[in-house]
Design brief:
about 325 residues, alpha/beta, D-Maltodextrin-Binding Protein, domain 2, 2 domains, 5-stranded mixed sheet, about 35% helix
């Protein structure tokens, strides 16, 4: 079994490296269903069979994971596209090699008060500030005609939102699956979600610039195996859910693709090259660059060259 832990102290790595693998790659992922094909492929031994020793970590803390990636301690991360763009502050040459999925309801804004959407002024609203969660919150506020300075934005990790809502530490909070389900179990209600902002939150896998340049064949192997695992999951859904639950220590009922649109290879090629629609990756990159510039988060916009579609061919 792949051992994956959610400790904030140290990532828990997968089993030891096979000695006959041609390439090695260390990947850290958020706890998010769109990234679970990596778990399936690891459990099935498909990476090893293809000649790739994939070391898989699940740190359980996005900020720490991004810090490790920026420091060069890991080769790749699976995170929301908005978070991947943030890494360009330290690593401008990262490569986004894959859009795993689009959040189409999987990211949610919740409150214990289901009527709070009509009365947001003065409320404590939690999300990971400076990232895609803040952009989602700002879109919600815009649609409700509420200014940012009329609410209290609080910086919190997504995993903490269910407990903070339950304890009264937050009035409103943004998080994602499986934490959305945990919050609902505590009595919270979804008041807004990524389904209300189509295309705003694509989820991705990014590799370091050094890995992109030195191991292009490893990237191609990774993608081939990823799409194999993704397709297998969609055709063996219950079996796949059981495998993922055992590997991550979650309940099977917590594993769901509801609110998540997985992207296969063909859909990836389309979104990487779609410069005309708002949901095409080049224009989503522009949206985040503009948001981060206004917020003073990034001085130099992420370059279009971070979109590494060449590996998908």
């Amino acid at each position: 079994m792949l051992l994956i832990g959610c400790s904030k102290e140290e990532p828990v790595s997968s089993d030891s490296a096979p000695q006959d693998a041609s390439y090695s790659m260390r990947l850290s992922i958020d706890l998010w269903p769109g990234y679970y094909p990596a778990i399936i492929a690891k459990e099935k031994g498909w990476f090893k069979d293809a000649g790739l020793n994939l070391k898989l970590d699940l740190p359980g803390n996005t900020d720490k994971m991004l810090a490790l990636f920026s420091a060069g301690s890991i080769d790749a991360v699976a995170v929301a596209f908005g978070d991947a763009i943030l890494v360009t502050r330290q690593m401008p040459d990262i490569a986004v090699i894959l859009v795993t999925d689009e959040s189409a309801g999987g990211d949610a804004v919740l409150s214990m008060n289901k009527e709070v959407l009509s009365d947001l002024k003065g409320k404590r609203i939690g999300t990971n500030l400076g990232g895609f969660g803040e952009l989602l919150i700002r879109r919600m506020l815009d649609l409700q005609g509420v200014k940012v300075n009329e609410v209290n934005l609080v910086n919190v990790d997504a995993s903490k939102v269910p407990d903070l809502l339950d304890s009264g530490g937050l009035d409103v909070g943004h998080t994602w699956s499986p934490y959305v389900g945990q919050a609902i179990e505590k009595g919270a209600n979804i008041i807004f979600s990524s389904a209300d902002t189509p295309g705003l939150i694509p989820d991705t896998v990014a590799v370091s610039g050094e890995f992109r340049r030195s191991k292009p064949e490893a990237v191609k192997i990774f993608l081939d195996v990823w799409f194999k695992a993704q397709n297998w999951w969609l055709t063996h859904y219950q079996e796949g859910n059981q495998l993922i639950a055992e590997a991550t220590g979650q309940r099977v009922t917590s594993i769901t693709l509801e609110g998540i649109r997985l992207l296969d290879r063909e859909a990836n090629v389309a979104t990487f090259n779609d410069a005309t629609s708002e949901q095409g990756l080049p224009n989503v990159l522009k949206t985040y660059n503009e948001f981060y510039a206004r917020a003073g988060v990034i001085r130099t916009p992420a370059a279009p060259s971070i979109l590494a579609s060449e590996f998908l061919q």
